Amino acid sequence: MTGMAMTTVMVILSVAIGIQTEDVPVDPYREIESDLGFVMNHGLISAASQRMVDDALEKLDDEWADENINEINTDILDDDLDENMDDDDDEEETHGRSITKRFLLNTPRKLWPKCVIPYTLDMTTLVPEKVSEILSAMSLFEYWTCFRFVPWTATTGQDFGLEHDNHLNFGRHSGCWSHVGMSSAGMSGQNISCCQGKNCIHEIGHALGFSHEQQNPYRDDYVRINYENIKPDNVFAFHKVKAHKRALFPWRYDYTSVMHYGLKAFNKNGRAAITLLDPHMKYLVGEKDSQYYYFLREAESVYKCTDDKCPDFTATCAYDGYLTYREGQCVCRCIAGLDSATNCTTIEGGDKARNIKWPEGGFSILKVKDVKCPKGSEVGYVTHFGQGKRSRDYDIAGSVSAKATKLEFCTFSSGTKKSKKSITWPPGQYCVSRAGGSCPEGFTNGFLQYADVRPPVTSGTLPDGNYTLHTKFEFCCRSDGNKDNPIVLPVKQPFLLWKRDRKACQKVKGAVGIPQHFEFTNRRARGVAELKRPLPLFKKRYRKMVLYVCIYKPIQKGCGGIIHLTESDSIRELTSPDYPASYRPLSVCTWVIQSPPNTTMLLSFPEFEIPASTEDPSVCSDKVEIRSFLPGQPGISYCGSGFRSAIESQTNIMSLILHSMTPQTGSNHFRASVSLAPQGDDLCYLSGDKGWTYRGDINFTHDLQTCLPWRNVTNCHHHEFAEGDRFAGLEGNKCRSPGHGTRPWCYTHAEDCRRDYCDVCGTGGCFDILDDCLASKTADFTYCLLGHHIKEGVVGCARTCGLCDTQKSAPASSIRCSSPTPPIDGKPLDALRASYRVGENVHFRCMNGGNIRSQTCLTDSTWAGEGRVCQVCPDDWRIMGDHCYKYFPDPVNETEAVRRCGNEKGQVAMAKTTYERDFIYNLLLTNPHDIWLGLGDKRSEGTLLWTDGTPLDHEQSGLHWNKGKVTNKRRKDCAKMNKSRNLVMRKCSAKEAYVCQTPIIFPSQCHDERDDCAELLDGLPTLCTDFRGFGVRSCAATCRECERSL
After folding, report:
1. pTM of the model
2. How far apart are CA 626 and CA 810, in angstroms?
3. Can 203 be counted among the known catalytic residues?
4. pLDDT tens profile 348-381
5. Annotated binding site, which residues?
6. Which of 175, 234, 897, 1022 could pair with 994 as two cysteines, CB 3.0-4.6 Å apart?
7. Annotated binding site for Zn(2+)
8. Where is the Peptidase M12A domain (predicted)?
């Protein structure tokens, strides 16, 4: 359907070459595109390689940020607009505006019936290139899912039995945006502004019902949102949605989702808006998943297209595969390397594409150096004269010199006899040379004419063109498919296609595509050199024209295997093919490893020799890709000599893929061991509390970076003086888990609060990075004691300096705490026992009533939460100024909020100053809601008064009307602050969350909870004012808080 639409909207443009430019890289072969090669240096990434990777990821991240910069996400905007609508809707609708803010809607009225999405193209605002990108985005959904995009007419709804007349109106409007889900627009349709590239997929995702991945309610285990770096007008795009208002999936968080913002999207200061809690996952966000595995799986799951299409399909798709409807058939979609023909139960073997024939009809392709033309084609060449250059790797038959360029072609005539094994040209992003006077169906004609120094020389059969005075090439190009959808072409031998997409070659099943290019310089001749698009990818530099091609080399598959680990068979070995000899070139071997449910695995390499580039050691020639996070996502690719650290999977399925792309020299091989990782009771921390109760001594990350002292990172969310982290054990620089993460971690860079996880149980192995550790320690007995083994913040000699011993902790399940000593001001609510397991709690209530303190058994057999129970505020309240505050996310009407705060001996919070407003707002960030304020005009219509009778000062409070719209109308007497920190009036019967505030009441005598308060104050004189909550609770006497209150 999209291919037909393409031919009706394509507009051919003819321009002079001297004007045309296209911004593409000079040598895209050097680009980091589909995956990143990490060169291993004794098991860790070398400094030079790490800089290369960081620079590449930074570039990709900036590009993604630029693509997102103008996006208007109307799923959020619609929610804000609703605040100014009439409140006469029913209660569910009044509070339920955010029901449209899900990751993927599953409300029937917001989903497109029958997975059919009608559309129109506004050709008054779109240019042909943008239309191609829109159709390419559509083709991605059509290739992998049941969705079908159909051109809309007034009868489309009736023709397809849709019971609606809505459709998507694609146009070029201000910014990139879309409504979320299907609206009730009717015949007028709903507008969508697609922008370009992946943004088209992103915006169509919104139209299908997706919201942004960084709004995932589970995100706090995976990313940190740096609100202080985000432009105020765009903060809404980072608020979490409610877990019960989205379709939930087992993988919880998808770094690769096309709905995930770039890490710097909407930043206001050049700093990251999103920080990954595991920095090793950055490659997933920067790279994106070109196959959109889980993104499309979520769409299939909610829309349930296959329920109608595949009612008789009863097989199970193994190893995280899923059922989809592709090319008219119900098939399993498998993770990389598995065969859909066997429902993902076996390794994918050789491709049937090796036996098919080229399409019938006239066309021509460039001849591959040292390879015969395909059967049925005729060879010819043209030499055109002028200065030429070529890419470092160049496989086009002929020659390129400073004086001339010779190109050889394989040309199929239009009278080629049709074979039963012949195929039709599939949709995609590629070009061929024209032959026989016209383009094959689905292609569009364009041409390129050079200004030769002298007439070209020809021989044999050539593609269409003019080769008399100057060289003129005729091309046939198509952009009606997505380059990442593998197309089927004959791959019995290498072949060449003209490159069409800017970033990567069109994928071909059973072959690897490598971009190359050649350059030709036109002579000065006004009006001779010209072009007419569409054309292969090109770049114009003054009189120089660069053309890009893709060389496709057949790859061997079928090697590898499937490995199952069990409790009784928990360690297995796997080796590269032909080990210990070198593996075969031009092959892709896949190993899929599965362990029992709710377990993970450790992968290590006793032997690892995978070649890096001889010309650039930071680039992998061959690579081993390890998919350890989610099996359907791309993995990190490794090469080099030696691999000392172990890699732990995040689920019970992981895969290893050997990509051999170069001729073999030397002994290239690997030997790997995979085993069950310590689980549950075998770990030195409790996975159930994400390591909060861990109190070991490890102070370096699993990459051997040294941890920063917790008191030196006070600009970060978690630090020694954070009020909410008083019992988290943040003393010194030990690895801890105060929150935001899945296991113990620490900060490694104070300026931007970068952090990483620690291998506190030693499961990843312990090793030396430096080669001279033993010699250095022998020569200087203080080498380890004085920290000389730490180079640029990295522990270089962990094993030699005995740090491995600190990782040998007892399992947390074996540790016991003796009965806690009751606090002097509290009485136990539980019967005390003689012994407790790690993670068990004992509760004490203040003898004067009020606060209840939980003490928790820790892995060092001590108790968290020791000290006085009676507090000026309960432990779960936060202190600001002379008040305590607590956020209550459960929505209630304003009267009930006032009553509940009264029961807490307080009132609904007032935000009279911008400082108070921002403090209250920060309480909401972990679970954003609009909240009631202690503000309204019940006493005098039109006059907004705080609970204490003082009038609202807009400037002093920073509370301004939402979107500048005054909503102070009759029947709207109660005020709320929305998630954008703006003021909105609502009916008092509406339901919102709320914050209570209550005054601090100090006891007659203050006590310090800590013994080192005086020392802390000497080291940080502003401790009591900068960290008031900590000062009041932990160092009240030293901070003279009781004297202040008198």
Report:
1. 0.82
2. 30
3. yes
4. 986 555 578 899 889 999 999 999 999 999 999 9
5. 202, 206, 212
6. 897
7. 202, 206, 212
8. 102-306
